[in-house]
From TrEMBL:
The chain crosses the membrane at residues 6-24. Belongs to the methyltransferase superfamily. L-isoaspartyl/D-aspartyl protein methyltransferase family. This is Protein-L-isoaspartate O-methyltransferase. One of its GO terms (biological process) is methylation. It holds the Pfam family PCMT. It comes from the Eukaryota. It catalyses: [protein]-L-isoaspartate + S-adenosyl-L-methionine = [protein]-L-isoaspartate alpha-methyl ester + S-adenosyl-L-homocysteine.
Length: 248
């Protein structure tokens, strides 16, 4: 087990390759089995993250006919992807302290709505989970997905919302945010996202072009911030709608 954890700490890309091979052979066909595997191999250590990922069934948020519980990113159309389950778990754990009931969270590049739904469950009806995606068709699909999930009541009461917009600009209406997650790689950290991060808040964002690192941004109470690298990753670029649609 320690060997698997060590590989993950070095590179999420290597970890993804190993887990995909294992999962393909084991034939996982249920959401709980996916979460149990993430726990078994040390990806999930948080009880709360495990509960949330069991509550939000990934099968509701991937294209029909695709193997929902394999640890692999998947194409969702419009040159966009949904991340592999191990990356969702890693980001949820990195942000967990800033996803307490009543807190505000922004999900940039919300895609099919999966992680936004997980965030909404964590912050609860007294909090606010906001997803921003610049492809209107993906937002429409994400709303349909959420309505089929355990997060549906939160969408109905307005504590979870999904919007069409340029995520690089954030979503000022519900700022400041205790947590910000960015699901695509920026060449540099967008200033509007730093501005909308609450003092004491945390942002998780992939940064880089060919070589990317998952960065953790901590905003101090005086407004200054620190940045550290968590692991090597590979995401699609955080770019304009037009660039994405033409394949970057």
């Amino acid at each position: 087990v320690m060997r698997w954890i060590y590989v993950f700490s070095l590179s999420s890309v290597l970890f993804y390759v190993c887990l995909q091979r294992f999962w393909t052979g084991s034939g996982i066909n249920r959401n709980k089995g996916m979460v149990e595997n993430l726990q078994r191999y040390g990806v999930i250590s948080s009880k709360k993250v495990a509960e949330v990922m069991e509550t939000i069934d990934r099968a509701l948020f991937v294209p029909a006919g695709t193997p929902a519980y394999v640890d692999s990113p998947m194409q969702i159309g419009y040159n966009a992807t949904i991340s592999a389950p191990h990356m969702h778990a890693a980001c949820l754990q990195l942000l967990e302290e800033n996803l307490q009931p009543g807190m505000h969270v922004l999900d940039v590049g919300s895609g099919t709505g999966y992680l936004t739904a997980c965030f909404a469950i964590m912050v609860g009806p007294e909090g606010r989970a906001v997803g921003v995606e610049h492809i209107p068709e993906l937002v429409t699909g994400a709303i349909k997905n959420v309505k089929k999930s355990a997060a549906a009541p939160l969408l109905k009461d307005g504590s979870l919302s999904l919007h069409v917009g340029d995520g690089r600009l954030g979503w000022p209406e519900f700022a400041p945010y205790d947590a910000i997650h960015v699901g695509a790689a920026a060449s540099e950290i967008p200033q509007p996202l730093i501005d909308q991060l609450k003092p004491g808040g945390r942002m998780v964002i992939p940064v880089g072009n060919i070589f990317q690192d998952l960065k953790v941004v901590e905003k101090k109470l005086d407004g200054s911030f620190t940045v550290r690298s968590e692991t090597s990753v590979r995401y699609v670029p955080l770019t304009s709608k037009e660039a994405q649609l033409r394949g970057f």
